[in-house]
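Can't paste images in this forum, so I'm doing it all in text. The chain is below; anyone willing to post the predicted structure tokens underneath?
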Amino acid sequence: MRFDGRMAGLHAIVDARLVDGSLADVLIEGEVVVAVGPGVGAGVTDHLDAVGRLLLPAFIDTHIHLDKALQRAQLAQHDGTLQGAITAIHAAKRAYLADDVRRRAREVIESSVATGTTRLRSHVDVDTVGGLVPVEGVLAAARECADIAEVQTIAFPQEGILRDPGAADLMVEAMTMGVDVVGGMPHWELTEDDQREHVRFCFELARRFDADVDMHVDETDDGRVRTLAMVVAETERHGWQGRVTAGHVCALSAADDDYAESVIEGCRRAGVGIVSNPVTNLVIQGRGDRGLVRRGTTRVREFLAAGVPVAFGQDCVHDGFYPFGRGDLLEVALISAHATHLATDGELRLALSAVTDAPAQMWHLDGAYGVAPGARADLQLYAADSWREALRQQDSPQAVWYRGRLVATTTVTRQLFRPAAG
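Text version of the structure:
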């Protein structure tokens, strides 16, 4: 495997299969893709021959919880619901040490990179239970992994703001410490008025720090919970169009169609992006249902039809909410395709967009992302020759590049042994 890790000079990946099925060379100078096309890598000494294998941009995980990851075995057993998970994690959170949070977060970042993800946006708990220890730990892990991945952090009031007196001051302090994005969880408040105040506070904080907003919104089975409409209204009131992301939005699947159509149109108008997290919500949601069980996803196809960007996130990794996960967005895309009925070739391209182009839009990457001139050279190479086959086979990428440097390789060896004839 070539590419020696230099940040200067020319590198090339030749004879790569692009997602549209065409073959091309990709020419890289330093951190940036400078040319894509047949023959543009000819004569470049430092090169990799892809021999027709699939080259994709590296994935972007725009919804993960690095501070909570990899502690499932240490938590008390609970009923599997959202409330049960939040309660079970309290004891662990009170005893958090920043170094332990750092270690667990780093392990998931490294696992994510090995499976093709070089950008992660992590919600990090900010509340009176754990204080700012989770923030300290994740920020430390982000610094340690800056040579292999870019990590954004979100100040996330898991316990509420009105419901958790003191959380508002901690949110301000977290942003002062260098957290990138303002989070929220308005549906966790006890009254509709408190929900509105929660949303108002988060947007005021975002204005103060000129930050984007990325909230957990309506992660419940109850279709009467409608804080997404509050988020849309506050987005427009503050002129924050294009700077707001709403995660989960599970309640919308249980809401009436008139409200759903109205609020989806509101998201389109206000430029609110949606992150669905089927891998976790398929496990948590619908536990009280009998017969036809709700799937725990939002109205993904309706959002897409309206032109609203939809991303898929890992969300949880072996924590109190979800016993599985390893930061592998190829696995997330497969499970999400099942949950949201994406099966045709066109629909599977939507599943790819949900872990590439859609989160890139939420990160404001514009022309700086993809397998295209001007994009940062964050790339991954699969043994498969198409996205459909990569998704079906579920093998990790053979090579991952971050800022033009090779940062991970995976080799898969399979052998069959049959008895001799006779």
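The CA atoms of residues 416 and 422 lie 18 Å apart. Confidence is low (pLDDT under 50) at residues 1-7.
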